[in-house]
Amino acid sequence: MKRILLLSIGFLLLLGCKELELKEFDLKNAYISFAVPDRSYMPKEPFLDSMTYSFATDTVIGIKTKTLAIPIKIGGLVHDKDRKFSFEIDPTSDYDSDLVSISEPIIRANRYEDTLFVSIKRENTLLTKEMNIKLRLNSNENFNIGHLHNSTLKIKFNDILLIPNWWNDWEMYFGPFYKEVFQQWMIVYYLGSDLTADIYTGAPGPVYFWRNMPEYPYPEWFPITFMHISLLKKYFDDHVVYPNGDNTQERIILP
Question: Taking Cα atoms as reference points, which of 78, 75, 85 lies closest to residue 12?
């Protein structure tokens, strides 16, 4: 038994109402789009058309496989039976197919949102090369293409630990860059560990964490950040850690 999604108009507004961004909408049909939320400040679109994952910045140390959960949204009609949707891998993708597996593309019965799972294996090639796979939704007997901006999704993945842009501004507290310090900082200063409001807009926290550091290293402005820095320093005081595990080098101690 079919039933019409009462919030279909809201779906249209949410996915954007710019001219030509959505093909002609007919309530007799169902429409499908990728729906990875853009959680950045004042995003241009509600959903991303590309995303990046790095094993190097995963706080689960030693992880061998990562499964990314890709939300899929529909608009229009739902159904009381499972329905398959269709996608293809864009030929411009640059990846090792042995490293990637993708779940069966299914929208389960009576659901307006489901998940496509993309699993990535960690191999040494990712230490020096960033790969990417671009997924493209196709129309089939069950679904038409919804929001054109989100009819494709490019997933970039690597195992490359890059020095974050904020490190130089904070070096007097973190010392020279070591991946061991950065990885421990990700564990200590996770999103939600600091509820400080945005210093400029007053927007409530959580705002600041290891990926989005305060712009200036001022203890009087960001006391919670500095409390976490003291925890980081204590960790390296209490634990003997060598760069890259090489005990011929000086152990890591924060300033």
Answer: 75
CA distance 66 to 155: 13
pLDDT at 14: 42
Between CA 198 and CA 169 the distance in angstroms is 19
State how far the Cα of 46 lies from the Cα of 37, in Å rounded to an integer: 6
Query: Global pTM?
Result: 0.70
Q: Are 74 and 145 in contact (CB under 8 A)?
A: no
For tokens 């995303």, what's the residue? 51
CA distance 231 to 186: 12
Concatenated DSSP letters of 125-186? GGGT--EEEEEEEE--SS-EE-BGGGSEEEEEEE---PPPTTHHHHHHHH-S--HHHHHHHH
39 compared with 51, residue with greater pLDDT: 51
Locate 144 and state its tokens.
């038409």
The 10s digit of each residue's pLDDT in 158-187 is: 999 889 989 999 999 999 999 899 989 999
Structure token digits, residue 54:
């790095």
